[in-house]
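ok trying this again, last paste got cut off
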Amino acid sequence: MTLRVLLVIRPATGGIRQHVITLSRQLKRKDVAVSFAAPQDLLNTLPKDLTELPKYPVDISSAFSPVKDLAAARTLTAVIGRGFDLIHSQGLRAGMVTSMSLATKHVPHIVTFHNLLSDGFATRSALTLIASCSQGFIAVSPNIASGLSTMASRVPRMVIPNGIPIADFEARSPVLDQLFELDKNRSVVGCVARLSPEKGVDFLLSAAKMLPEVQFIIAGEGPDAESLMNLAPSNVEFLGRVDKTRDVYHAADVLVIPSRSEGQGIVALEAMAASCPVIASDVGGLSTMLTDEQTALLVPVGDVSLLASSIQRLVRGRDMRARLIHNGRELVLRKYSDDRMATSTIDFYGTVLHPG
């Protein structure tokens, strides 16, 4: 009998959205019947190959709002009534709204946590509610799992890292040189990130000021776009939204992830799959996923001088680049494929649906 799974998603861009797309594609290939419950804006941006799957608009807001949350929970309750074997919420906000709706609908519920949780009252209250209405937690990194064990120890949990469709990032665009206006005689440093405080793009801009001979390209959108552009030196170009991030990885000699916090870091996986060496903040899931000097260069958060010197070291050091490229690809192939992620997720579904 086909397993019927409803994915509940809050407003999402970047890593969470990509995770949902990748997971859905693999679940579909493995004969899981996937449906989506999410804000209409997100449903509108799903790729064409997923548009035939059932979609239910649910206006989950990005921030806590008692009125909006109750309205979303009522809508979701009606959706759940259509008949599903399991509800799989993506993140704290989706998990909370689902838990509110499950007060009258007894369907097994699990939640994937993509980000480190704060220790504030609102977060603890939401997690308490979720824990009382859930049969399992998935964490995308050990750091996140550790936080869950502290705040919600009774709920079974499993670490399932994000996986990526590796082949999608290996192929180079035949028109790569036409996509970006780059000087072939200068090194290129890339960054793919949401333009918001936690991604630390301001640190990269400060490093760029120290390296006028290097070109920097930054792909992404977000609330800090205007302020970051005002801070940027002339050797930095903002690309805005780039549909195929692999083009940035293939155009760049180095990919920098200067985050202040990071649940895991899908961008690092994508860059390594595309044979682009990585420099990353030594923080969160990046710290546990990457090994300094072996799969990436790790820099303390906000250490702009060391970030700049690490960029110089990598653009000039052919042997170091080759080692990071080789080891990075091997790491992704061994541990972070989309097939592995989906298989582990389905196995976890089984433990929830058939405990003991």
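PB: full thing came through this time. The CA atoms of residues 54 and 338 lie 22 Å apart.
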